[in-house]
Design goal:
alpha+beta, three-stranded antiparallel β-sheet, two-stranded antiparallel sheet, globular, Transposase
């Protein structure tokens, strides 16, 4: 499943194995491996977390 907001596009392959959050950084481990996403503000990072929780 892909996430798109303000030109930021990423693909997440379910199931998500782990999520780690540190301020504006979100690390995700899924079937494709480990990925680190860096956001500019809290609103964008919270929206991305909401997307992840729906998977």
């Amino acid at each position: 499943m892909s996430y798109n907001q303000k030109g930021f596009v990423c693909s997440i392959e379910a199931p998500v194995k782990s999520i780690s959050v540190n301020k504006l950084n979100i690390a995700v481990t899924d079937n494709a491996g480990f990925r680190l996403f860096e956001f500019d503000n809290h609103h964008d990072s919270k929206n991305f977390l909401a997307f992840l929780y729906q998977l």
